Amino acid sequence: MTAAELLAVVAARELRDDTTVFAGVGVPLLAAALARARHAPRLTLVIEGGIIGPEIAPGRLPISTNEMRAGRRATMLPGITDAFLFAQRGFVDVGFMGGAQIDRYGNINTSVLGTDYWNPKVRLPGTGGANDIASLCREVIIVTPHERRRFVERVDFVTSPAWLRGDGSRRAAGLLFGGVSRVVTTLGILGFDPDSRRMRIEAVHPGVSVATVRAHTGFELVEAAHVAVTAPPSEEELEALRALDPERRFLG
Hints:
Elements: H1 3-13, E1 20-22, H2 27-38, E2 44-47, E3 51-52, H3 80-88, E4 94-97, E5 101-102, E6 108-109, E7 112-113, E8 122-123, H4 130-136, E9 139-144, H5 169-172, E10 180-185, E11 188-192, E12 199-204, H6 210-215, E13 222-229, H7 235-244
Parallel strand pairs: 1-2, 1-4, 4-9, 9-10, 12-13
Antiparallel strand pairs: 2-3, 5-6, 7-8, 10-11, 11-12
Helix pairs in contact: 1-2, 2-7
């Protein structure tokens, strides 16, 4: 089992039936397709290119949000602006996201590394639709490898807002609903303290200690009263996942 397989399986378990999920290509889309195949047959996928309700064919996973494989047997092909309009109107339950940097309040950076925006150390791909997803979906789940360089005290640039400063600032900024609920990583599952909105350890994967999670995080984590241990991926889950990506373009 690779780290990407573990990430996809655990992320898939977070999705519920009868919900609408905005998922990007790669591991988030794999996780959503796995959830639909395994336990959420009425899950509706939304893909950024303007695709509603596609059926992802095993072995034909799209590598772009704008290619025709992403629209296979779709319910609607309304266009990209309408896809985000549905989120603005409250029709999208969950947004699946990743990011280069994530801070203690769940804010995501996919824009620049370095404090000088106009002269950064690294210029990243940018927002695409990530800001809209983080701002407008009813709930956001971050899916990411767990590395100290990703989990930083403060992101260099807030591309996609979560809880901002954790003091009611999200609502003060005009974002009246939504927010990041969980961060699914290769080491465990992180949530957020309901009062301070600081990131906290809620579960670890088998064989991973709380100390290991802390060592791979660039800021102090809150700890839930009871830290659970996730169930390892079953053979059936791995078989279904690998059928979706037999060439292992995303599973490594």
